[in-house]
Fold this sequence. Notes:
- The protein is of the alpha+beta class.
- Helix content is 41%, strand content 17%.
Amino acid sequence: MPAMTRDDRLESSLLPGSDGEHALQKKYGEEERAQSFYARQVLDFLSPLMREFIPRQEFMFVGSADRHGECDCSPRFGEPGFIRVLGDKHVIYPEYRGNGLFASLGNICENPHIALLIIDFYRDSVGLHINGKARLLESDELLQFAEKLPADIVAEIGMEGNRRPDRWVMVEVEEAYIQCSKHIPLLKKIERPIQWGTDSVAAKKGDYFQLMNLPLYDRIGGDRAMDIAVDTFHRKLLEDELVAPYFQDVDMEAQRLKQKSFLAMAFGGPYQPSGLDLRKTHGQLAGLTEAHFDRVLAIFEETVRGLGIPEKEVGEMVHVLQSVKDDILNR
């Protein structure tokens, strides 16, 4: 697709949407339909019925991206009214205790652009898109403007326990438009108890996909993680006074590939490690002692911890490597 010229960009700058979508509309002959939608449906504020629609809803999808464009889409849930409307240009919603990742909030800190999709599955089977710029506010910071806030926001900030939001996201509306009901199913809501803010794995169905049953190699990140770990590990080996002499005059690229292959097998890759191969390989290293093995293992443990691999998986990896100690020392 040819790049848009300066004149093209100036001509389209008054339209909602991106240069990319305008280019595709032109390419696929949809300019007339798109411009009709822009003219009839897309606002840069919330209409009166949009402002009535929002407080009835119980969840929405939040799209965000960091400064590199890496994206995240996360849901937000609450009782009807948890998304508050502050006039026709702003909405605000609470951030409850979650999984501790702060994926959406972290993105907002780097890149304020945000996309909200609020869908009514229970009554009207219709949705509302809100695109805009987000700002993160701590609850205590928000209380400084208590006299200007709706009373229910002040009341919620005053709650105790896990129901009290620690922070809020305020969104300045830049685009607001309908998600039509054409393919939105109408659902029947079945009440169930919800433990807001719980850390219970059972209550959250946190292991629904049974990820702990995956091989250790997959749980630590597979090939990509092992590439990074082996590169860092080898650099540390070459900097260590005790073990570095064993790598003099060694083809380090070949050594790296062997090391990655061994670790893949040891941690649940497609093959099983062979004690015989380990004995044959390391039996040629004169003077190799338990102190050398322990130092190499300590460097490996330091490496994977530094990469942020969880403690449980680090423990499993160390246990696996300890189990081949006698083979490596040929005893």
